[in-house]
Amino acid sequence: MSKKTKANEGSSSGGGERISRERLIELLNEDLAREYQAIIAYIVYSQVIKGAEFMSIAAELEKHAGEELEHAITIANQIDYLGGDPTVVPNKVKTSSKARDMLRFDLENETTTIRAYRDRVRQCEALGEFAMAEHIRAILMQEQEHQIDLATALGEDAPDMTS
Ligand SMILES: [Fe+2]
Ligand SMILES: [Fe+2]
Fold first, then answer.
1. Domains annotated on the chain, with CATH
2. Distance 21 CA to ligand 1 centre (A)
3. What is the CA radius of gyration of the chain?
């Protein structure tokens, strides 16, 4: 794949950090590694989670797995568009035999993911990549739904994301 981007294409992100196309590729690859992690976690957790009270969330987790796969494809497509090479390495997936631990890991990962995509929307816009920002906004909406599903299953409110 061509490496046509140069550091001098950067501009201010508006959030303090300067962003360049190269840096955006790196950050999107971090997002892609998290999407792979989410696919694996949701596949495994949805199948191994036990307990009558967790059966409806298990079905929900299986649905999340498919949505995370779509996110991964979208993010890989954006990386390719920018001239980068999509990573093939997922972030590490934590394991536990306890249903509540699995839901907790997923909830923490969704919260991290939401923070990252909020930054990514701003960074895409700072580079004038408005269509890319829209793709990421669409993903962000689903990640927020995932976060709410998990918090609800744990009997909690969704984490406060305003800070
Ligand atoms: Fe995702
Ligand atoms: Fe998600």
1. 18-153 (1.20.1260.10)
2. 22
3. 17
Instruction: Quote the CA–CA distance of 102 and 47 in Å, as a whole number.
Output: 11
Nearest residue to 58 via CA among 49, 69, 68 = 49
Distance 78 CA to ligand 1 centre (A): 14
pLDDT digits (tens, 9 = 90+) for 60-82: 999 999 999 999 999 999 999 99
CA of 70 to the centre of ligand 1 (A): 8
Instruction: Read off the pLDDT of residues 131-152 as tens digits, 9 standing for 90 and up.
Output: 999 999 999 999 999 999 999 9
H/E segment holding residue 70: helix 55-81
| Euclidean distance between CA atoms 54 and 75, whole angstroms | 31
* Residue 98 CA, ligand 1 centroid: distance in Å: 23
Angstrom distance (rounded) from CA 88 to CA 143: 21
Task: Kindly list the averaged pLDDT for each block of 10 residues, start to end, along the chain of length 163.
Answer: 42 60 98 98 96 94 98 98 98 96 98 98 98 98 98 94 79
Cα 8 to ligand 1 centre (Å): 31
- What is the CA(44)–ligand 2 centre distance, in A? 14
pTM of the full structure: 0.89
User: What dihedral do alpha carbons 45, 47, 48, 51 form, nearest 10°?
Assistant: 100
